UniProtKB/TrEMBL annotation:
PROSITE patterns in the cross-refs: PHR_CRY_ALPHA_BETA
Classification via Pfam families: DNA_photolyase (PF00875)
Ranges annotated as spanning the membrane: none
GO molecular function: damaged DNA binding; deoxyribodipyrimidine photo-lyase activity; FAD binding
InterPro entries: Crypto/Photolyase_N_sf, Cryptochrome/DNA_photolyase_1, DNA_photolyase_N, Rossmann-like_a/b/a_fold
Transcription is among the record's keywords: no
Annotated keywords: Chromophore
UniProt keyword annotation of Phosphoprotein present: no
Protein name per the record: CRYD protein
One example of a Gene Ontology biological process annotation: photoreactive repair
Domain Photolyase/cryptochrome alpha/beta: 1-76
Gene name per UniProt: Crydash_0
């Protein structure tokens, strides 16, 4: 979870993620984790800036050959 997604928007200060959306996201992540667990896998969840969190995970894991990601489309 990127803390920047829970701050106000740059133009008007409206929250990017309100309480209902946050609850939906948390419930979705919990459901995904439970589904993966039933299939013998797991889900890594971290809080922080992705550029820092991913770097730290790669360092912890040691032998990472590829990283896939998508970039959020930002409105001006």
């Amino acid at each position: 979870f990127d803390p920047r997604h829970y701050l106000g928007t740059p133009c008007y200060g409206f929250p990017k993620t309100g309480p209902h959306r946050l609850r939906f996201l948390l419930e979705s992540v919990k459901d995904l984790r439970e589904t993966l667990k039933k299939k013998g896998s797991t889900l890594v969840v971290r809080k922080g800036k992705p550029e820092d969190v991913v770097r730290d995970l790669i360092t912890q894991l040691g032998s990472v050959s590829a990283v896939a990601f998508h970039e959020e489309v930002r409105e001006i």
